[in-house]
Write a structure and sequence with these properties.
With 316 residues, the protein is of the alpha/beta class. The chain is built from ten helices and eleven strands. Strands 1, 2, 3, 4, 5, 6, 7, 8 and 9 form a nine-stranded mixed sheet that branches. Strands 10-11 form a two-stranded antiparallel sheet.
Length: 316
Amino acid sequence: MDISVVICTYNRSRELRLTLEKFLQLQIPSGVNWEVLVMDNNSKDNTREISAAFQDRLPIRYFFEPQPGKSHALNHSLRVAQGELLIFTDDDVDVEPNWLAGHWEAAQRFPGTASFGGKIVPRWPQTPPVWLQENVSSILRGMAVWYDLGTTEQTVRDRKDFFLGANLSLQKSVLAKNGLTFRPDLGPRPGDPVRAEETFLQQQLVERGFPGRYLPSVIVHHRNPAERMTERYVREWFKGHGMSEVREGKVKSSAHWIFGAPRYLWRYYFTTMFFYAIYRFTRASKIWVGYECEMANVWGHICEFRAQKVRPATTT
């Protein structure tokens, strides 16, 4: 088997059906053997039936992962995938016809490269609010599932440019030789908005000497629901981002704690809240959106410290 396409899904059978319909239009390189792994992460809807309905038209293998958490489903896929090139996407995307072939062709040109990624263009059910349109390619690009490094193929080493999971491929042999899997405490799960499962893995690859390769002509379109166009969703997304930073050890602790978290975080949280409140209707969106995102991110730091009850070794 040459390619395993991996789709992790949770209670979104309608979206999964639309994604699989686009797979029917894929251009498969001559002589390439491929499979589609539908990794059902404990769904309660008819995901199994939707998968079965496509098995006479696509080389689908269905797997049920009962442990909640996307990383558990991803690691399950690493165990059962038969392909050397693992191409990951989401259950709510529309892939372009050359998507699979683009990843495969790049892997042949760069056999020593462990990861590849391409553009992701968000699709909205209606025109987004102005504040979202003005910041979708900068502050809000992760939340909006927007990824575009331009029109030039290039090497990717910096975390800020790491590929998103909706358009990512990995060389299975490189992961196996380096003992790498997706970190189980990262990645979304019911009631836990933590992110960064794919970026943390890419960081591990870079640290071992395996940078990624950006493929500008390999494109998917991400179908964003209306809820992503709300400030409430922005705050929840950045809260999860902040929680993941604590789990990765990227947020310093302190000898001075109050209400279950380092005191300096509370001070920063209320400062960003203040500036968000006074700038929300008086300044350009890039200013107040920036404060809102930082406010939510720091709130995620606080929530995670409180949940973990991590305290400094000594208190002064």
